[in-house]
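Batch manifest, entry 17 of 40.
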Amino acid sequence: MDSESFQAALARLMSLLEGHITEAKAREALQASSGIVEVAMARLFDGSSGSLLGSQDGTAACDSSTVIDIDMSDGDDGGTTDDALSETLREEAPRKQRKPTPASDGCRAKRRRLKPVPHMPEADSEVLAGRSITEGGSSGSRAWPSQLSAEEIPAQPLPASVEAAFQALGPGWELLCESSQWARINLLDQFSQDWAQRVQAQDPPCLSLQGQKEILGQVSTSSGEMHSASGHSSGKTSLTDQTLQEKVHWLEGGNVAVRTSLLRELFASLLSGVRYPPAELELSWRLVEVDRKSSKKFIPPDLRGPIPSRPFRLLDNSGDAPAEQPPHFQSHSLRPEQRRSLAWMIAREEGEADDAGGRSKDQCVVEWRRFWSPESHEGKEVDQIVVGASVKCREDAQGPFADASTDVLPRPLLELSQLHGAGEVHSRQGANCIVRFARGLEAPLLVTCSLKDLEFVDLGGMHPGCRVMLQPDLKSPAYGWGGINKQMVGVLLKHEGENISVKWPTHCSWKGKFTEIKRADMGPAKDVRLAALDIRVRASYAVRGGILADKIGYGKTATTIALIDRGLGRPLPEIPYVDQGRFIPAKGTLVIVPSNLFEQWLNEIGKFIWNKPLRQSMRAGWSPKSFPMKILAMSNVSPLSKAKAHEVAEADVVICSYRLLYSQIYCQRRDELSRGPCTTASSLSDLSKQTKLLLEGLASMRSGRKSEVQVTDWQALEFPVLEMFYWRRVVFDEFHELESFESLQQNSLQFLRSHFRWGLTGTPPVESNAGGIFMSSLFRIDLPGYLPRPEGKALDLQPWEDDRLLTETVGHFLDAFARQNTADLPHIKLQEQVVLVHHTAAERALYLGQAHDAPEFGSAGAFENEEKVRALERLLKLCSHFQAGGGDNAVNAQEECERISDQKERRVVRARNQIRRCCRVILLLDQKLAEKTSKHKKKPKTWCAELDEAKKQVAAESDAGKLASKELDGEVERASAEDLELRLQILDGHRPKCEELLSLLGPDDQQRGCTQQWAALATDQSWTVANLEKFLRAQAVEQAQNLRELHEASASMDFFRRTVQALAKDGGPPEERSCSVCMEEDLPLAKLAITPCAHTFCLECLKATVEKFSACSICRRQLSSKDVRPIVAEIASPALVAGSSSSSSSEKAQQTGMRFDKYGTKLEVLVQKLRQLRAEDTAAKVILFVQFDDLKRKVSSALHEFGIPCATLQGGVGQRSSIIRDWQHNPQSQTFVLLLSLAQSASGSNLTAASHVIFLHPMLASSAEKAVGYEMQAIGRARRHGQQRSVVHVWRFVTTGTLEQTITEEHQGALWKTEQERQEQRRKLQLHLQEREHNAQQVGQEQAKGAE
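Output type: C-alpha cells
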C-alpha cells in the first residue's frame, strides 16, 4: 500500500473511531503531521474535548488552550528536589515537534463555549482560545481535562490590519480576540514550579468554625467583593489605571493585547494563597471595557446575585440499590438502609462513571477568581450624611420623624408626607440626626430622623457630603499627610475660606487646603479607555471517598466496617505519580477515632466479623491469628513502638485515637524521623523526604523507641509513624470535632495520604460556607483558593459567607461527595420535659450584671471574637452556678455579689489611673512639640482628632459617658497646672502601650515600668517633629481607648450596684424602686425594669418610651426593644411555685439539714431530680451533659457531696474505655450518673444503658443548627438501636428570664410552648385550690359563728 492510500485508510479508521471527526479533517491532520498518528490526534483534539482546531485556509491550527499538570518527578540530580512539587505548563506536543511556519504563526483560533463543569456552577461566558507572541513563535498547549467538554463555535478570521498590529508589538504579548470574552493562557514552567514548591512546603493553616455567624434560612445577595483585588490585601497585587494603560494595547474591532508579564504577575498573586496543589490547572483571563462616565464599580455579573440559602441540604441514598451483605456479616447483617449507604461508598471508591456525560466521579473542579476594577470606579460606599450636607427622605422611609423645633415632651411625630424636598443636616448624634427643612416664609422645621431613612442629595460642586480625592499632582499637603494617600475617597466635612476638613477612611477629621482636593467623580481624560481585568483559575482535584453523615443511630460504624470487609484481599490501586516513592505502601485502612469510641470500634468489629468480643482476645494491640482480619489497635503509643514498618503495612485495619497523634512521645518520634542528619528543624514535608531516602536505601533511621540501632531497610524499622504510609483508606470518625484541634494536629491529619478518604459524622457543619471549607480541607481540596488572615489575627472565614461563587461550589461539593440518611426508630419513643429553675435575688443580680457586659445573643456580632464568646459563656454559666469562673472561693451568692462589686470598682480605678497617666504623657509630648515649632506658624492639632471624636461619642451615649468626658477634661486642667516634678511623680512606673514609644524611651523595669525614662524625655532635645506628632497621635488613640474603658467600667459598676440595691431583701432605697416617668414608688420587682444606663422604670413606661423615642427618657441614651426586660422574671419562692421541683427543693433541703448555698439553686434542683428518678426506678441510669469543664467540676463536686454516685471520663484511652464499659455493662455498679462534656463527649458513644438524658443547660453555639446538632448527638447516645427501654426521657433544665430561656425558645420552640402551657395550667389549678381552701375557711368560720 502506498503512502497516500495508507493515510487515507488511517483517516477512515480515525473517523470511524471518533464519529464527530470527518474523514477529510483526519486526512488533513495526517498530512500536516507527516503521517504520525499521535501528532495528528494531538492536532485534532483540544485535550479530550473533541473539538477540532483548524484554520480557515486549511492550514494547521495553533492550539492555545492551557492546562497545568502537577508533576513531582525527581530532577536529574537524583533527588535534590525530592519533596518539591514540580508543576509544568507543557504542551501536549507531538514526539517530533515541527518548526513554526508562517502559516502556523498566522493561525486563527476558533471560539469554544464551555459546557457546565461537573460539581461546579455554570458561570461561563464564551471562552476564546487566545493568542500569544513568544520568542519562538506561537505557542500551543493542552486543553482542560476530560470533564470540561467544549463545543466548537465558528469564528471569523482576524482582519489583516489587526494581525499586523499584533505582530508589530513583538514578543511578550497575549491577544484577546474579543474583549469581555475569556481567553486561556500558557505560562512558563519556572513560574509553575516555584509556585507548586511553595504550596507543597507549607503546612496548611488551622481552621476554626468558632465565631462564624448564623446563616440559617437567610437568602442574601453577593456583591462579589471577595474576588476584588481591592477587597483584601492577602496575596493581592495592586493594579493602577496607569499600569493597565501601559501594559494594555487596544486594537481595532474589540481586540486587545496585554503584556504576558502582567498576566504572569497577576496569576502568581491569585495562586499565592492556595493551600493544596491540585492535579491540574486551567488559566484564563479577559478584559472588559467599562464606561468612563459611570462611577459604579465593575464587578463581574456572574459573581453577583442572590446566594443560595443555608444550611446546605445533603442528599440521601434512598434511591440507591442496596449492596450485597459483606462476606463476614453472617450472624449480624446490615439493615437494607445501611446496604444502600454501602453501595454508595463502594461506587465512590471504585470511581464509576456518571450516567450522564461519562465523567469520572472522583474529580472535583473548583474555580478561583480575581478582578481588578479601574481605580476611579471603585465606588466604595461612604457615609455622606454629615453636618451641612443636603439630604432628603427615602421613599421607603419608616420613621419615626419627631418635631425637634419644639421643647414639648414627648415631641410631636410627623408624617413622611409633611417632609417635602431636600433639607440640610443640622446636627448628628449616633444613628440619628436633626435635619432642617425650609418652609418658605415660615421658620424652618427641625426634624429628628434616622440615618437609614435619609439619602444624600448631590448639588454639584464642592459642598459638605460630596466625595473627594486628593489632587493627583499634589506633592505635600500643607498640614501633613496624616495617614492618607491619593487612592482614598473621602467626604468633605467643612469648607471655610482656603481651609477644608475631610473625613477619610483612616482619618476622621483631616485638615487641608481647598486646592489640594477634587471631586472623586471627576474621572480620567476623555481619550483614556478604562478596562477591568478579570482572571480565572480552574483547579481539578481527585477525590476518592466522601462524607458519610448519616444521622445518629443509623449505624455509620457498621457500614464502614462492611466497606472494609468487602475490600479485603483486593489489589491496591496505584499510588499517584506525585507521591510515588515518598510513602510506604500500606494495604490496610487507618481508622482514627475519638478516645471514648476506641473500644466501641473494636466491639463492633468483633460483633460483625467474628460474632464474639474482640477486645479481650487482643495481645499487645494485635488481633489473634484466628480472626479474619489482621488488626492493630493502639489506645496508646506502646503497640506502635514495638511494631515494625512491614507489620503495619500488612495490617488490614489500624485503629488509633486522635489523642495518640499528638501525644508527646509520638510527636517526638515523628520529629526525629523527619529530621535529616544535617538538620535540626522538622516539618511534615520533611518526613516524606526522609521516607523517600529510606525506601531507596540512602538514609538510615533509628529503630525502636529506646534502641540505638540504625536501619537502612524500611521493613526493619521499628516504631514507624502513621504519616509515613500511603494507606488504602483513611477514616476520620466524628470528624466534626477536629475543628477544635490546634494547628499542628490538623496539619497532621490533612497530611495523611491514602487512596480513599472518608469522614464520618452525624452532625456535619453544613450551616455555613466555613463548614464547607473545613470539610473539603479533609480531602486536601481548597475551595476558596485563599483564606483572609487579618494582620496579627487568626484566619477569618467570615468574609466568604456572603460569596455566591463559593456558596454554589460548596453546594456542588456536598452534592457529589456527601450523603446523609436518617435512622428510623419508631419503637423507641422520646419524651422531653423542661425543668424550670428560678434564681434567688443575689443570683439574679449576678446574672444581670454579666448580661449588661455581654453581647446580645442572636445579634450579628455575638460570636465574632473570643472576648464576646467568653462573655456569653460566663452568662450561661451564671444560669447554673452563681460563680462563672473556675474558682470556688465564694461561700454563697451574696458573698459573690460583694466580690464582683469590688472587682468592678477596681476596674474603674484602673481606667482612671490610665487616663491620668496618659494625660501627662500627652502634655509632655505636646510641650516638646510646641518648643520645636514655636518659630513657625502655629498648626492645628490634627493628632487629637480621634480623641475628640471619642469624647463626642462617649458623651452622647449616656450620663456615665458625659461624666467620663468631664472627668477627662478635668484631668487635663489639673495636669496643665502641675509642675514638672509632680507630673513625673504621677508617671512613675507608667508603661505606654505604644511599643515604638516604649522602645525609644529605653529599657524599662519589668516590675515597675518606666521611671527615669520620663524624666529623660522631658529634657531630651533630639526628638524630631515627625516623631513627636506620630507618638502624639498614638497617645491620643490610647487615651480614646482609656476613655471608652472608663465609660464602660463606670456604666457596668453603676448598673450592677443599682441592680443589687433594687433586689435587696429590704427593697433598697425608695428611689431604686420608683419609676422616673409615672412617678410610681415602691414598685414590685416583677414590674421593675432597669436600663443599660442604670435608670429604673416600671416595665410599661419603659416599653412605651422605647417604642416611641428609642431612647432613655433621663439621659437620652439610645435603647432598643432588647433593652426592655424585667429586672427579675421570677424570684424563687416556695409560696409562688409550691409543688414544682424547682420551688420545693430549697425547702426540702433545709428540712433535711443540707446546705446548698455554695452550689446555688439549679444544682439543688438537679440533686433532687436525680434522687427522684432513682427512687422511682432503681435500675434507671442517667447521662448528664455539661458543656464547660469548670462548671462540670462544680457539678461533680455537688453530686459527690450529696451522695449521688457519678462517673466522669478522665485519663487515657484505656481508662476512659474502662469507665464506659463498667457504667454500660456492670449491673452491680451503684454509679447511675455518667457526667459527660456536651462539646467533646457527645459523639459516637453507645450508651444504651441510659434511659434518661439530662441537659444542665442548653448548648451554646454560633448557630441554632450546630447547637441542636450537638444536643441530638447527645440524645443519640441513648436513643439508638440496642436500647432496651421503650422510652428515653430528656430533661432540660432552664432558668427563667435568662439566656437559657432565650436559647430554649429558639431551639426547642414547640417544647417550650408546651411547658409554658403546662405551667399556666398548674398555676390556674393552684389558684383554684387556694380559692376553694379560702372559701372553705370562710364557710367554716361562718358556721362556727352560727354555732356560737
